[in-house]
Amino acid sequence: MQTAMKLMLTAALVLGFTACSKKGGSNVSSATGWKINDKKGGFQLNTRYKKQAPAPGLVLVEGGTFTMGKVQDDVMHDWNNSPTQQHVQSFYMDETEVTNAMYAEYLFWIKKVFPPTDDNYKNIYDGVLPDTLVWRNRLGYNETMTNNYLHHPAYANYPVVGVNWIQATEFAKWRTDRVNEAVLEREGYLKRDAKTQDVASDATFSTETYLNAPTKAFGGNEEIVLKGRNGKAKPTTVKGKDGASESKEATNIYAQRSSGLINPEYRLPTEAEWEYAAASDVGNREYNNYKGQKKYPWRGAYTRSGKRAYRGDQLANFKQGKGDYGGIAGWSDDGADITNAVKQYPPNDFGLYDMAGNVAEWVADVYRPIVDDEANDFNYYRGNVYTKNKIGEDGQVELVTTETIKYDTISNGRVMARDFPGQIAQVPVDEKETYLRQNFDRSDNRNYRDGDKQSTRYYDYGNSEEDVKKEVDTKRMYDSPLHNVSVDSLNQMERKYDKSNKRTTLVNDDARVYKGGSWRDRAYWLDPAQRRFFPQDMATDYIGFRCAMSRVGPKSDKKKRARN
What we know:
Helices cover 18% and strands 14% of the residues. The protein is built from 10 helices and 22 strands. It has a 4-stranded antiparallel β-sheet with strand order 1-4-22-7. A 4-stranded mixed β-sheet has the order 20-19-12-21. Strands 2-3 form a two-stranded antiparallel ribbon. The two termini are 53 Å apart.
């Protein structure tokens, strides 16, 4: 009997220890057994994090495999979209194209924080302004759009145009900071309403600055950048060697990436992401196969709706034929002559609007005639230029200031700020990051395997870099014009046009891909696989953009399994 009682007592103790272990398991390290998130210090981790919430304006595009390219016909004979099998990770994409109202908010913020009346900031505001003159035509009257399209409330929900690729990428950076700024304010890490009441040219919020040097955000104003949530970071009390109590400064008082609060950056989608999202072949899925590939973002081989209630209606805004941009009065084919307000046509199977028609859209990629699937078939993207934070003499990250801000003069003479005060200055990666690496060996990878010296017919294995630089004008793989625009010491613009009549292409490292048909294009260009290019520093009245954001964590919100 006593033996039985001992066994029962032993079992009870084991169960008790097991229960205790499970109870505290989420806050105990499985690596060391140490306590996580101890108020007295130590390793901190957001153990309550569930999943990434969609940031403003975005919808989830679940990643997967698809055939990139492979249009129905190739009447242009470019052979620039041969079919390749690619896999894209899950990501988020803007439900609609960026509208005039969204871009106007950007302009308002820039004008408030960096007043163009101040000579120090004049070029910042001028550099982000869309080019409204893109609407002009030598033999057409379009002054109404020139004067009203960007600012009039009648066009507030129409996609913004006249924005070049550089401006689109800068908008995405600005949007990242404003969204994260609002999140940290909501969570109590920033003073409430500081983003509107206290912001100034020398006191702005940058996501990367906050993550790398939080005390320098908002110009180092500790009344705005709070220590702990709602400024309640209390010092901890510990016992010293002599048994006396000591006050120890609180640690982990600022939000970090490990907090799970800060969103990844807004950016332009890659060409592969954009095409995958536009095609939305998921609507043709049956089990683990696609039942054919769509010609358009919607099902079917025609541009008109086959549904009884909407039969005959056009499913996108595009040019119907010569001199026909929207049908006859009283019976419009697509309800628009120029662009149209967003969400006027049905979304595709991912819930995205206007992935064909309305405006074509910038994507992140540098254009090349082929997609090099032999080099990579996962998250394909041509255009990587790797940089790192600039470190000052004090060993701390160096911020851009009014005195150190750099401007670029682009080919049409416009002066644009490379970065804004308050952001961390960037420099190219060097041998410290590239030495003995197998996956990359340089900072600029835009012309890798298609434009660099190794890919040209002039490649000389034993040739030195100095010799190659001397031959750059005559032995380039893509012999495009070399225009040069600069500003001299007297602030006079010098334009040096390339007058050579021996140039053979317009393709170079500054030619960017744009996708999707527009209000100016025939139905042929509505195919998601179609691809064209345009100089990154030029704008038109038919190219707009939308933003994307990478997804962190699992591929989808719901667990998937094969059906028996």
